[in-house]
Design goal:
This protein is an alpha+beta fold. It folds into two domains: about 10-125, no CATH class; about 130-185, no CATH class. Helix content is about 25%, strand content about 35%. Helix 3 runs antiparallel to helix 5.
Amino acid sequence: MYTTDQAKRIEMTYLRKSGDLKGWSWRRISWNYNGRPSGCIDVKIATGSDGDNYYMELDYKWKDHDAAEWTPIDYKVRLQPTSCGFGGRRWWFICPNLNCRRRNSILYQSGRYFVCRKCAGLKYESQNYSGKYSFLRDLFEAEDYERSIKRWYYRGKPTRKHRRFLKMTRGMSENERLDECLKALRA
């Protein structure tokens, strides 16, 4: 299953930093995979003075794995501004999936269209760890955390860091942790 790191995406922060959210603009976004071009998309952005009619128009070609020819795709994604606490505004994509319509800062390609992460069925990389491997990951994190502990007890009581370390290791001694790691790797 793909993760968010592997999917093509359009990020609102990229559009903001490049100055495309001020009025009308046009941009071509390109992606690379292992140093080779893997796709591009033309983006037209309308954040002018049309009131509630803010949108981003996506224009690109898409090819299904079985198809011989490229299919042109052209559709609009609604944009929505929200006011910031100290002035200005923050822009959001509205997911083009009619059953979703969530506000997002990133759209991911899922098949023909760019939609939100949930509609695309994508996970973050950190969500792929499960079962025995998550236990091993927790133990390795605990080992790194143990090095940061300078004081284990204060006035006869375990310090906050010591208590957190015990929670991370489930109160096991170093030998018990090694045994658990070996069991998990053998299984």
